[in-house]
Amino acid sequence: MERRVRQVDAADPGACRTAAQLDGLTGQALFNSLSWSRATKCLVQAAARTIWGAALSRMSALYMLAYASAAGGFQALVASDAQSGQGFRMKGGAHQICQRLAERLGPQRVLLSAPVAAVRQLDDRVCLDIVGRSAPLTARYAVSSAPPHLLAQLDWQPPLPARKLDLYRCSPVGHIFKFVITYETAFWRELGYSGEIVSADGPPTAPGLTAAPISVCFDYSQEGGHDPALVVLSGGLQAQELDGLSPEQRRSAVLEHISRFFPRDRVLDCLDFAEKNWRHEPFNGGCPVNIVSAGAAHLMGPNMRAPFGRVHFAGTETATEWCGFMDGAVQSGHRAAEEVSQRLGGQ
């Protein structure tokens, strides 16, 4: 798998010598051709549901390899050392980044509850029609960091180029449930365990499920062991099935699954059980990233990042390093800002 990853340029996957062949395969088909061990297949399936919020069967093999290439390899996506995708978490929560940036910019520059419905480009400016506002916002240039599937839903005048629009329409967003379960003590540590669970299958734990719901579970306690907690992620089909249950049923199903690994009485005796369903967020509609379906990944690279008239495109899906992560979002923002700066004469 890593050898295949090195053959694909994350900046231009379509330039790969075997791009057409790889784009005609799903990620699952490619992986099946490289692996014969059931244990390995199960492990990768669980990883895929966490990395992309979707099964490998839903994405192009070319996209899968390009995504891993942007991280420096498939292993880097799943490992938890300091150089890998799961190496850090932010003390106090990642939402602080948005809050502090908004504070620096000030309320006059950050408009909340102002969704864009249409993008109209004129010879010398771009106009953004805002829901609930009579007058549009106008600027010489605009930068969008919205996810591809939402960009496809906007009214563009003139229309988006056909290849860019086709790529956006073939880029569905993943589906992940996140659960944070807090306890009086980190009983898993007391028992000599790390708290980490990776699960790809197993019998269902509630009516309406076809398999056990958890993809991964990690120790989520604060530094020094304070506020003992487990964080659980459920992705792909399992998350879709959980979406059809009530909150009480989801709680029961998740705790029942964890009870297969730790003492049942300790698992059920939690102080709090919080859940987040990213599918219900109106301005992303899912989590953690947009995948690209088989047959469309050759359109990536320039088509995902290329400006359209006076509109430039950022967002983690456009990144060439750590696509799908916050690092990728920052890289894409710097790139888009540089593009606009050059058009403004380097100001």
From TrEMBL:
<dbReference type="InterPro" id="IPR001613">
    <property type="entry name" value="Flavin_amine_oxidase"/>
</dbReference>
<keyword id="KW-0285">Flavoprotein</keyword>
<comment type="similarity">
    <text>Belongs to the flavin monoamine oxidase family.</text>
</comment>
<keyword id="KW-0274">FAD</keyword>
<protein>
    <recommendedName>
        <fullName>Amine oxidase</fullName>
        <ecNumber>1.4.3.-</ecNumber>
    </recommendedName>
</protein>
<dbReference type="Pfam" id="PF01593">
    <property type="entry name" value="Amino_oxidase"/>
</dbReference>
<dbReference type="GO" id="GO:0005741">
    <property type="term" value="C:mitochondrial outer membrane"/>
</dbReference>
<dbReference type="InterPro" id="IPR050703">
    <property type="entry name" value="Flavin_MAO"/>
</dbReference>
<dbReference type="GO" id="GO:0097621">
    <property type="term" value="F:monoamine oxidase activity"/>
</dbReference>
<dbReference type="InterPro" id="IPR036188">
    <property type="entry name" value="FAD/NAD-bd_sf"/>
</dbReference>
<keyword id="KW-0560">Oxidoreductase</keyword>
<feature type="domain" description="Amine oxidase">
    <location>
        <begin position="48"/>
        <end position="340"/>
    </location>
</feature>
<feature type="binding site">
    <location>
        <position position="317"/>
    </location>
    <ligand>
        <name>FAD</name>
    </ligand>
</feature>
<feature type="binding site">
    <location>
        <position position="116"/>
    </location>
    <ligand>
        <name>FAD</name>
    </ligand>
</feature>
<dbReference type="InterPro" id="IPR002937">
    <property type="entry name" value="Amino_oxidase"/>
</dbReference>
<dbReference type="GO" id="GO:0008131">
    <property type="term" value="F:primary methylamine oxidase activity"/>
</dbReference>
